[in-house]
Amino acid sequence: MQDDLSSLVVALSKSGDFEDAAARTLSAMMGLTERTIAASKYAGRAKVLRSMVHLRPAGGYVKLAILEQGATAVQSAGSTGQRGAPSLVSATAWRSVVQHGSPVFVDVTLGALKPYLPQLPDKAEEPLPGSFTSQESRQSFLSRQASHVCVIPLRALGAGIGGMISLEADSPTAMGQDFIWRECIDRLQTIAEVAAPYLTGLPFRPAPHAEVDEYLPVVGKSMANLLPILNVFSQQEESVLISGPTGAGKSRLARWVHSRSSRRKGPFEVLELLAVPEELQMAELFGWKKGAFTGAVKDSLGSIGRAEGGTLFIDEIDKLSLKAQAGLLRVLEERSYRVLGDGAGDRGADVRFIIGTNVDLREAVRAGRFREDLYYRINVLPLRVPSLDERQDEIPLWAHYMVTRRHKEQFPQGQAQLSPEAEQVLSGRAWPGNLRQLDNIIRRAYTLALVEHGPSAELTLSSGHVSRALEYEGATGQAESKAAASIPTALIAAAQAFIAEAKRRGTPLDLGLTEALVGIVLGQAVQQMGREEAFRALGRENLLKNRNHHKVLKRELEKVEALYKELGEGPSPFAALLAENEAA
Ligand SMILES: Nc1ncnc2c1ncn2[C@@H]1O[C@H](COP(=O)(O)OP(=O)(O)OP(=O)(O)O)[C@@H](O)[C@H]1O
């Protein structure tokens, strides 16, 4: 073992990317498992099928690597040519790994799951309450011949559990027994510990060029990395949890998942919880029979009923009342529900759920607003959609797509484009409202261009059109949103606000007034850190040494006052500091 471990360490230290490190780690683990089988009573009657690295730090999956028996390289998740639906891992297994920080053994045939807790031997013998998992996970494993699964936590150095490694084996004669996991678990864990810093720290291999389609017409670098994972998710029956900021495209991605699933011919239903008052949530979800409550004048299908045979996307799940959460949990666990006022009993739900959220559900669980069991039940296949600001490379592509789409509605044969300057303006600002906000701006800029040029099959949106569309947004809102953005982005936003004001006034707004920026930064720093610390932090210690800092602060703050005066905005937030400085 020592030799194997040393050669693994050498190999890992030469690995250039996650995929290579994953292949080496998984093949070392599968090799060890095979040797353990060969030396056990299951020799010749059991085989190792595959293993997987699931990198899923808080927020969602970022990488999934699968090594099939006999292969030397990991499969890129979701690649075509995979047989059947690749099984991932059950919600209960992940929950146990997170809660106990220890491995878990799953007997798929029995549907039993045991945490490996040698320090608490009694507990280790008890299957986890609630036992194994949903029917979906079980079926998924069984369809891949996996009868026994071992799941090992993956810890990044100094961090919590950021993922897991799962090993699947086929050993029908070991039904109801622990299989060989106990014999090799310590060594498997050692391999996982040695490999964890490489698996969590190495860069990913660049994703192959992603195919775009009507549901996802633009794919930049970060989405290209996520799509293979989402593709695997789409082939599962388990619930998918899509989190991400509002307007980032979660509902479109849900549709994308549906369009790639085996349910694509079935309906795709959306339940926007934000639009449903709490007291109507149960009715909206489950439907009602005539007379079930005041106002129920005829039978009505709920979202679950309408999504029968297809997919239901429930957006803003954190808005679900605790009562409706209990109802949804039951549907997810038992695949049945009761229509309100239906005396005929429960009906089955053949529905795949995709859940959307723009809040951190763990926080909602901690605050007691969201059921923990429901959280784990929907958190089997989580994925976080990055904000548009994290997908900078997509901004011009989306803008182009949105302009073209709009123009084709008017002129099917026409051509519309954005000037390079217009693209720069769009790329240079922050998008707190994400794709929805970008779409709104493009719509306005397009209208402005039409107004200026008249209806025309050939149309170019200039930076002027885009800037004017942005002006409608209001400079204050922008400035606030910029605070969290990168410095260049924030500065460009400030420049846009300045230019917009210059254009609005009709009288010149002298460029020299922008020099007030130095005073704003300095004044802000002095207010936050105190005089001396501020001058040091901003690289002006020399001014402290020759006692010139009062003078410089005065000069710069006066420029700020001049700017405020010119804008008719009254005293600046640094007026008191200026007076105090004068007195000093
Ligand atoms: N794939 C897409 N194709 C075209 N437009 C898109 C796409 N994705 C997002 N958009 C644009 O962004 C807007 C917001 O997208 P979507 O409703 O999917 O976001 P969301 O993350 O679900 O938002 P919310 O959380 O507020 O519901 C859409 O109305 C559309 O203008």
Automatic annotation (TrEMBL):
Pfam families, per the entry: AAA_lid_14 (PF25601), Sigma54_activat (PF00158)
Domain of life (superkingdom): Bacteria
Assigned keywords, A-Z: ATP-binding, DNA-binding, Nucleotide-binding, Transcription, Transcription regulation
UniProt cross-references to Gene3D superfamilies, sorted A to Z: 1.10.8.60, P-loop containing nucleotide triphosphate hydrolases
GO BP, sorted A to Z: regulation of DNA-templated transcription
Residue span, Sigma-54 factor interaction domain: 216-447
Molecular function terms from GO: ATP binding; DNA binding
Record-given protein name: NtrC
Organism: Hyalangium minutum
Taxonomic lineage from the root: Bacteria, Pseudomonadati, Myxococcota, Myxococcia, Myxococcales
